[in-house]
Specification:
316 residues; 14 helices; 5 strands; alpha/beta; 5-stranded parallel β-sheet
Length: 316
């Protein structure tokens, strides 16, 4: 564990070697599954780089200097953190170069070019880097091509395939693995997401190394909706109209905000996809009843629906 972050000791050692040899790059792209601690790691790395009491190569910020205290309070003058805004599907141009009335006089690209106020570096963290619009990426391009002295940019995404070529070609990629099952199990127990060790172990197995997914899967209503699907699928008698009505009620229970509804729908689709993968493995081994073709078709449609939701398709 490094600064409260579990499961990424290899990445910590990678940055220790980089800093010890004075080879810190300007732009890093963190990729790996959601819910494994990439954003938290980026913040801890920023704290280490900005701490004025200890050498960055130690990766052990003091927690007491002015820089560390300001970062902990969320208002460090040399750190910018941006991500998707509520109800938005893409990172906005204004987040990089300011609103119309302050164009090129505000935003991340403007701020990262300013002289550091407390130390020798400025750090910017761009969360949700999977969701760059082409226009926003173009705004960042000059900063990536001609980075200001002492600037460090950390982009946080999930996979190479979701990144624009202009970003990939200018960033050092750092890969984060899913959390080990025993590590995730312990975190689930610490958060009280499961009642006992057995339940936490099963939840960790289903979550695939993601703590955020484990939190989602701890929702009883999600399992109830999933159970209705599995029951109909197993006996080969899915009642599509009734299933649609059940889904509509399940999604509506998330509230009035569109993104909350989409998130709930994605959670169910992810759980259904995991079930179909399990059935597919069983069918391939000769121990399952549905045909491999039907399972592949169902899994493909489920994954397609997930992607359509991410692209803002109509929920109905």
């Amino acid at each position: 564990m490094w600064l409260g972050i579990y499961g990424h000791d290899e990445v910590v050692e990678q940055f220790r070697r980089i800093l010890a040899s004075n080879r810190l790059a300007t732009t890093y792209l963190f990729i790996g599954p959601d819910g494994v601690g990439k954003r938290t790691f980026a913040l801890r790395l920023a704290q280490s780089l900005l701490c004025t009491a200890r050498h960055p190569a130690e990766l052990d910020p003091c927690g007491q200097c002015t820089s560390c205290r300001l970062l902990a309070a969320g208002n460090h003058p040399d750190l910018d953190v941006i991500g998707l805004r509520p109800e938005k599907q893409r990172l906005l141009i204004s987040q990089f170069i300011g609103e119309d009335q302050t164009r090129n006089r505000a935003g991340l690209c403007h701020n990262i070019a300013l002289r550091p106020m407390l130390g020798s570096r400025r750090v910017a963290i761009i969360d949700d880097a999977d969701w760059f619009s082409l226009e926003a990426a173009n705004c960042l391009l000059k900063t990536l091509e001609e980075p200001p002295p002492g600037a460090v940019l950390i982009l946080v995404g999930t996979s190479r395939s979701r990144q624009l070529p202009t970003i990939l070609s200018r960033a050092q990629i750092v890969r984060f693995r899913p959390l080990e099952t025993d590590v995730l199990r312990d975190l689930i127990l610490q958060e009280g997401q499961a009642a006992d060790l057995a339940a936490a172990t099963e939840l960790a197995r289903l979550a695939g190394g993601s703590l955020s997914r484990a939190r989602d899967l701890a929702d009883p209503a999600l399992w109830e909706a999933h159970g209705r699907f599995v029951q109909g699928w197993t006996i080969g008698a899915l009642d599509a109209p009734r299933l649609a009505r059940d889904l509509d009620e399940f999604i509506a229970a998330a509230g009035k905000e569109a993104e909350a509804r989409r998130q709930r729908f994605r959670q169910l689709l992810g759980l259904v996809a995991a079930t179909l993968r399990h059935e597919l493995r069983a069918a391939a081994a000769g121990s399952g009843s549905p045909s491999t073709d039907s399972l592949l078709a169902a899994l493909d449609r489920t994954l397609q629906a997930e992607e359509e939701l991410r692209r803002n398709a109509n929920l109905a």
